[in-house]
Amino acid sequence: MSAISEASTSSIPPAATQERKRLSLDWLGVMPFFLFAVMFLVLPTIYLVAGAFQDAQGNLTFANLVNLFQPSIIDAYVISIKISLTSALLGAFIGFSIAAAITLGGLPSWIRAPMMTFSGVASNFAGVPLAYAFLFTLGRTGLVTYLLVNVFGFNLYAHGFNLLSFWGLTITYLYFQIPLMVLIITPALDGLKREWKEAALILGATGPQYWRMVAFPILWPALLGTILLLFANSFGAIATAYALTGSSLSIVPIVLYAQIRGDVLQDPQLGYALAFGMIVITGISNGIYIWMRARSERWLK
């Protein structure tokens, strides 16, 4: 037996043994990512989902999910979906226009680098600083509001605009939605092969026909997937909305915060159910985004 084991051990090539050790050590490089994902994503999600199906005593119940159908909570979901969808569609349209201009348009090539750098920074600029920036800019005493009144004689608030409203929050969300769209859709636009346009033009197609019959069908999965990602991105935002509007606009993240940390409406179990509903909506959006993105990448390779 010892001879057989020695023979089998000696039959393993040294290179294979070194390769196995190297691969095992390579996993150490990604361990911080997995630990971070488990601690700050997987475990909190499991905790929220479990809390949605428990009462205050820890017993199994479906009452929390039934309470989601209260008129006030349904209205909060409707408002959140409207704001998220509006900001996603506007951000996708404006961001796509900017990305197309810097990749396929006639703009100087040096504009692309600073635009992408700014997009990378602005797409992550959110929360309380963003809310205060818009209050100082478009608030009742903000800089832009002051200039419009004193230089152009136009009062935004006299014509119905209010930063602490549906459109005010939507415009604020556009600050990080547009750059995120630029970052995501630019590689897809770079993937459009020049030969496709040349072939279409040689066959007699016009520019609009090329976009309608060739480019957009190829880009459609990426566009739709990115819109869904923008929707999920704004649907879960709370810091910006809470710092900007407080409780004047009842969107789901603010209602959830009131249930978890509030003094009057405190009901943690209902808050867990609200979070579970948000997880389902954003999970579906992100899942469809990943699927559509994979379809788009097959065409653009």
Automatic annotation (TrEMBL):
Family note: Belongs to the binding-protein-dependent transport system permease family. CysTW subfamily.
Keyword Transmembrane set for record: yes
This protein's UniProt keywords: Cell membrane, Membrane, Transmembrane, Transmembrane helix, Transport
Primary site of residence: membrane
The keyword Ion transport is assigned to this record: no
A single Gene Ontology CC term: plasma membrane
Native organism taxonomy: Bacteria, Pseudomonadati, Pseudomonadota, Alphaproteobacteria, Hyphomicrobiales
Alphabetical list of InterPro entries matching this protein: MetI-like (IPR000515), MetI-like_sf (IPR035906)
Protein name: Acriflavin resistance protein
Location of the ABC transmembrane type-1 domain: 77-289
Compartments (UniProt record): Cell membrane
Organism: Phyllobacterium myrsinacearum
GO biological process: transmembrane transport
Membrane-protein topology: Multi-pass membrane protein
Pfam families from the UniProt entry: BPD_transp_1
TM region positions: 27-50, 62-81, 88-111, 131-154, 166-189, 209-232, 239-260, 272-292
